[in-house]
Amino acid sequence: MVTRRVPALLAALLALGGCATSIRTAKMGPLPTGPLVTLIVSDDRAVVERECREVPALGPILGCSIWRTVQPDGKTDVKTMKVVRYTDAMPSALALEIDAHELCHVVAALQQIDDPCHVGNGGVVRAGGANVRGMTR
Known about the structure:
Elements: H1 2-17, E1 23-31, E2 34-42, H2 45-51, E3 63-70, E4 78-86, H3 93-109, H4 129-135
Parallel strand pairs: 2-4
Antiparallel strand pairs: 1-2, 3-4
């Protein structure tokens, strides 16, 4: 009886394994109120639709950008941004970190704030291992 359950369990796990979805999130530009930029990429459209539920759309939602105004110093308005997008192929951790980092610089440059995109990382890539980190110096 135990012998029959093991193959059935393995078959069930393999069947469910093909249904796995992925989500990658990167946050850049730490502020006292949270990150300046959050980038979410998923191959699950339900995740994208849930993250973008505030955004009106006439058709299928494949991505969105959501802006929020905060005052990190209690007086200066700063727009923070969340970008969510669907993908058919997940980016590597390195690609996601680079995308979020460059997006952070764009969002910061469009506002009257000091660029927080190197705070906590010194401008050095964290993903991708030692070989990639060596290229950034």
